Amino acid sequence: MRAAKRRTSREVRTGNRFAVLRAMYALGTPTRQELAGATGLSFATIATMVTELLAVGVVTEASREDSGGGRPRSRLKVAAGRGLLVGVDATETYVHVDVFDLAMTRLVHHDHAVGEGTSDPDRMVGEIAEGVRSALAAAPDGDVLGVGVSLPGQVEPDSGVSLFAPGWGWKDVAAQALLEERLDLPVHVDNPLKATTVAELWFGHGRRVAHLVTVNLGTGIGAGIALDGQLVRGATNNAGEWGHTTLVMDGRPCRCGRDGCLEAYIGVPGLMAQFGERHPGHRYLEGGSQTHFLAAVREGLEADEPEAHELVELFGEQLGVGLANLINMVNPNLVVLTSWAARDLGRWLLPVAEARMRREAINGSAAVVDIVTSAVPTNPVSTGMAAFVLEGFLERVGLPSPTSAPLRRLAEA
Amino acid sequence: MRAAKRRTSREVRTGNRFAVLRAMYALGTPTRQELAGATGLSFATIATMVTELLAVGVVTEASREDSGGGRPRSRLKVAAGRGLLVGVDATETYVHVDVFDLAMTRLVHHDHAVGEGTSDPDRMVGEIAEGVRSALAAAPDGDVLGVGVSLPGQVEPDSGVSLFAPGWGWKDVAAQALLEERLDLPVHVDNPLKATTVAELWFGHGRRVAHLVTVNLGTGIGAGIALDGQLVRGATNNAGEWGHTTLVMDGRPCRCGRDGCLEAYIGVPGLMAQFGERHPGHRYLEGGSQTHFLAAVREGLEADEPEAHELVELFGEQLGVGLANLINMVNPNLVVLTSWAARDLGRWLLPVAEARMRREAINGSAAVVDIVTSAVPTNPVSTGMAAFVLEGFLERVGLPSPTSAPLRRLAEA
């Protein structure tokens, strides 16, 4: 068992800096007074933090206005040109790279296809590095503050190690070190659901809601939890392994080695297996491709084919029970769906899933929860990874802060 | 959907006061310097908070020692005699009342049996009030700072309303108001699992561990979650409804109305039903009493009766899967068991449950979690309710603070 994580006094004292930055992104060009109002911090605290952020060039003065005879009041903004943030969503089939300026305007979007071949660390790290270099080649000149790379599976951001990535056969791979060697840039690694949740907190529904859960439906099934505006990591960054909670004890075998996990049912391979048992050799399953399967089901729904409706019904009921479990455990205000399976089938799937969830979740929790799609305008994984890079940069220049400190009262700003 | 909860600037600024008080309970007679070390707060912040706590008489000077020529350094302690805190664990069959001094020394323990009869609000409130009056009659004179009453089911502490207590047939009962009318004392109501978790944070394993989950096994099944040293309530105080997550989709009917909930299997009535299906009319089930059943199973285990072992095996496997789900969602350092079913059968039950949990939970989370019994020396429910009363008292005297602010770095103190 690990003891409580060590925190320095300075970390505790500066714990609200990120609330200020998040408020700045949300408000655009706020005054110090408006930042105090939005964060709930005192004017004196805000003034100190703004001075620090001005000193490292992360914030700049947007304008100065006369406040009616008194001291002129300046409006502040994030210093867009201070540097570039690179966010990477690395998956088994593609490497998606976004380059942002510091105002989080996306300057470059680059998709790097990962061809067939081994997925040993050397090759995959090479593919990721190539994607990043191509993206940066297309970006305007600027100080690259760091590269945030989302890796599938269990990732330990502090040590930079990929503990376990089953799809790639990785175990204890020093991914951060390998990437830094190739790129000669500071690299931060994390898990896609943590990145998605931070993106939602900073740039999406987290601006107005305290407790939210992001849900990914795809090959894998997972969740990211934010409570009181803060990302929940748990003891070892594994909180939110919703896909490996039980739908049926001793049920269908899951690729994780357990039986009966939610993912074994509603992960796309699980859906294909369930469908195949009912309709062996059906054309939706041709070639065994997950993308083809979902596209075929979608076409089937549009053409009103009964087996497509049957599948969505099954998927919706199972998803609804899973969502109710999540809601019963966490009691969030929002469940945010951020995935391709949800996007492709959502119109048919969500009404079934939501109805089942509302029957299954306890009343007091069902009454206050909404299910929505992501409000992050860019790829939430790469966007969240870029936010982590910004945190890392502030730490390197002497302004450490805990990951995604709460954004208080912004809802009332 | 509710918006993020409103917080005043003052609440945010004073958010660390409880960390100071918790450190004081843990350290006994610390200096201001030691409090700063234990909480990670600056000496200046500590000095301000201690001044406030001295002013309202909650803290007092324990001793003053010469610090070698410099300014004398005083040791502080909680002012035991400042007043009495009453904690009440109200259940369907008994009302358990503890009276504490402010140093949380238990002065009186009183068990009030609730006889047969209706469980309408008037009668139950009367029983609780009678229990409290009897306990206070036995206590030394003192200023009663408040009464904390744990009520079963869904409770909304802010409004003081019991939203739903299925065992009593309560729905939207203004419990706090009814109790205050009878007792003429400030009353705080909450749910037993929230109280248990706060007790563990303040006086138990929470002193050294950041992320813990308390688990109750009894008629009902539930969990209380603490992350980063803070109680997790969720949007409407319903986080931790672990008993109503799924063990088997569409499985055994649960008293909550859903099918397949964990509680429908391993709540004591569920265990009795499962046992009865395998051994109809068995003497363990005589009279249908849950207490009798558990005692008979325990005797059966001691006498090595195969059907007792069979039951514990079934219970352990189902509990193990449930624990793995909890651990996969929350990724805690500790699971703390605090219940009669665990106490009576623990010696036989826990090895089975833990082995199954370790097979089922994902590796990175299973590797860091321990299962232990509570380290709270008194009844955790009434102890936690007394801690809530102390919070409420500080709020009334102008020192508000969020519920159980994190206790940082105490592990290294």
Would you write up a description of this structure?
The structure is a homodimer of 413-residue chains. By secondary structure, chain A is of the alpha/beta class. The first copy, chain A, has three domains: 79 residues, Winged helix-like DNA-binding domain superfamily/Winged helix DNA-binding domain (Arc Repressor Mutant, subunit A), CATH 1.10.10.10; 135 residues, 2-Layer Sandwich (Nucleotidyltransferase, domain 5); 166 residues, Nucleotidyltransferase, domain 5, CATH 3.30.420. Chain A contains 14 helices and 15 strands. Chain A has a five-stranded mixed beta sheet with strand order 5-4-3-6-10, with helices on both faces. The first copy, chain A, has a five-stranded mixed beta sheet with strand order 13-12-11-14-15, sandwiched between helices. The first copy, chain A, is globular, with a radius of gyration of 22 Å. Chains A and B meet through helix 1, helix 11 and helix 13 of A and helix 1, strand 12, helix 11 and helix 13 of B.
